[in-house]
Design goal:
Blueprint: H1 5-21, E1 28-29, H2 30-41, E2 68-72, E3 75-78, E4 87-91, E5 100-106, E6 109-114, E7 118-121, H3 140-160, H4 169-183, E8 187-188, E9 199-200, E10 206-212, E11 218-222, E12 231-238, E13 241-249, H5 250-256, E14 258-260, E15 263-267, H6 268-271, H7 277-284
Parallel strand pairs: 10-12
Antiparallel strand pairs: 1-3, 2-3, 4-5, 5-6, 6-7, 8-9, 9-10, 11-15, 12-13, 14-15
Helix pairs in contact: 3-4
Length: 285
């Protein structure tokens, strides 16, 4: 019985990668990988495609037998076969110029997100060449991992590189979203910088998250998109931890804020005194 040429090429590449890079722990460039395989086995460099064997990348039709993690454009780290790796999984559709998140691995198990149903099993073919994924249905395990990674980066920025927390607004903003998603057992909004809200709770409520490192001052609520959120969560980062200043209906926060141009400015000293959603639900029962 003849072995399919495609299967043979895949097995050949897989075995060559394992033989060449077992035990290698440093970062490898795409050129280094191609040169090493070419020199060892005489393989055409154009046939050496490490991106087809990545834990954090998905290619339609490729076999799911990952060996590498792609760290950056043309940079890889070799992990080896059957590693219980946890990561997001990226893909670049033909209709896009940038990578998009299409799934995740949790302890090595691959799940692809489905635009209409939330997620599907790894052997799904629901991810089409013309459809971008909708909801980032990250598992709680994935959110926990991302939260830990971002907290490590923030600790380096503040503790080792001397940045003030107020100078790391983007990091704090993303960490605030992860923190909120953990609290409400939810997930992130489907788009980067989603207008109006950042997190979707398990109960379906849309939450706008505002994170600050200021002890006093205001947080701004965009008046044009405020109606797209159900709730507001205001977080304060001090002394290495997050504290909830307010978590409740966004209408309550807007009523307590002062108008400023096309926004509303909510003073932190007022926010902390507002009734939370839990308190409001308690009064209704």
């Amino acid at each position: 019985m003849l072995l399919d040429v495609t299967v043979f090429d895949w097995m050949n590449s897989y075995n060559q990668f394992v033989s060449a890079f077992d035990g290698v722990v440093r970062l490898l460039t795409s050129k280094e990988i191609k040169d090493e395989i070419s020199q060892r086995f005489g393989t055409n460099p154009g046939s050496v495609i490490p991106s087809d064997f990545c834990y954090n990348r998905w290619n339609k039709g490729a076999n799911d037998s990952p060996l590498f993690v792609r760290v950056g454009q043309g940079e890889y780290r070799y992990l080896g076969p059957d590693v219980p790796h946890t990561c997001l999984v990226y893909w670049r559709p033909r209709c896009a110029v940038e990578d998009v998140v299409v799934g995740e691995r949790v302890n090595g198990t691959l799940t692809l997100y489905d635009q209409n149903q939330g997620c599907s099993e790894a052997n799904s073919t629901d991810v089409s060449e013309t459809t971008l994924p909708g909801v980032l249905a990250l598992s709680q395990s994935q959110i926990e991992l991302l939260y830990e990674k971002y907290m490590e980066i923030l600790a380096l920025e503040v503790g080792e590189f001397g940045c003030q927390p107020t100078e790391t607004r983007h990091l704090l903003g993303r960490l605030g979203e992860f923190y909120c998603a953990r609290m409400v057992d939810g997930t992130l909004a489907s788009q980067v910088n989603q207008a109006g809200f950042d997190v979707i709770g398990k109960d379906g409520r849309r939450i706008s998250v505002k994170t600050t490192a200021q002890v006093s001052g205001v947080v701004s609520i965009n008046g044009k998109t405020a109606n797209r959120a159900d709730d507001l969560m205001v977080l304060r980062y001090t002394n290495g931890e997050f504290r909830v200043v307010f978590h409740g209906e966004i209408g309550i926060a807007i009523d307590a804020a002062r108008p400023y141009q096309e926004s509303f400015e909510l003073d932190l000293s007022r926010a902390i005194k507002l009734p939370t959603r839990i308190e409001m639900l308690g009064e209704q029962q």
